[in-house]
Structures are given as C-alpha cells and as structure tokens.
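Hi all, long-time lurker, first post. I run a small reading group and we've been trying to get comfortable going from sequence to structure in the token notation. Rather than ask abstract questions, I figured I'd post a concrete chain and ask someone more experienced to write out its structure so we can walk through it together at our next meeting. Sequence below, copied exactly:
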Amino acid sequence: MLTIYGHAKSRGVRVLWMAGELGLAYDHKDYLPRSPGTQTPQFKALNANLRVPVIDDDGFVLSESMAINFYLAKKHKSPLLPTDPKIEALVLQWSLWETDRLDRQIVNHARHTSDLPEAERKPEVAKEAWNECVAAFDVLEATLGKSEWLTGSSFTVADLNVAGAMFRGLVLDLSKWPKTQAWLKRCWDRPAAQKAKAMRG
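-- Answer (accepted) --
Happy to help. Here is the structure in token form:
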C-alpha cells in the first residue's frame, strides 16, 4: 500500500497530483510542514530532515517531491515519463531547473508581499525574489513559444513538477508571459490537478 505524508498546502501537492494522474489508491497522512506529526520519532525514521512530502510504498521510503514523482511515474510505466532517454533527460532538466530557479523565489515573493504579517514583510526580499521570477518566466515563455508543453507535444512529469511549484502563479499577473499563463492554466485544469487543488482546503 502506498502512503503519502504531506498536506496539499506543501510540496506534497505535486505528489498528490501525480497519484491522481496515475489513478493510484493511497493512504494519506495529511501533515503540514513542521506540524506535530512531522516531529515524532516515527516520522524522523522515515525522513531525518523532518520534511514533507514522504512516501512509503510497501516499505520503500522516499522523500523529495521531484524524486517521488519520477519514481511513481517510472514504476507505473506512465507515459508521463517517456521512455525516450532524451525526453526523460529533459523531464529531469526541467524539474531540477525549477528547484534552482523558481521554487524558493516564488515562495519568498509570496511571503513578503502577502503571506506574512505586514510588519514582518521585507520589500527588498520581495523585489529580489520577483526579479528572479521574471527571469524564470522569460525562460518558460521562450520554451513554450516552441512547443505546447515543456518537453514537446505531450504533458509530462516536467510540466506537473514545474506547474505544481507554480501554484502561486495562478493568482499572479502573468499577462506579460501569455504562453506561460496559458500553459499554467492547462496544467491546473487537468482533473487530477483540480482534485489536488481542492485538497488544499
């Protein structure tokens, strides 16, 4: 039995989305980041970093949402992870790109413009984060000007992983990047994405 640890308001949303795409049955431990459930010895035995998401797939324990999604797609021989080694490499490229170029940046922008209490917000952090987001959006726009999806003509793990991290982008003004905006909507309009989104509460 597959067990998924992690709330949809965390990076766990990517894994819940993937499970939906694959039609997997799973037991869901709905743990928010840094919640009491993640601070127990039992959870530390699963992930010494005390972070979500984590999966336990019949005794195989894995953390890090990008790695989890690669594993699940490959295990279940999903077309979301093409067998062509070049496309598979592009999926990996985009997933790693997101963790470096967009993940922390879009979170920091949100925190220092809306999420944190106003007294705790730092405009300089928000500005620097936004500048980095702009550079990343420019890259996405150029790529999506050449193909409908990040690795070509089909939706893959790459699109899921990057769009999953860009959840906050759904409420940002992306009109400067129309192809990116349309792509993000296509991704999040997928039934499995809508189900994962609804789990955010």
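A couple of things your group might point at:
The CA atoms of residues 39 and 126 lie 30 Å apart.
The first strand starts at residue 2 and ends at 5.
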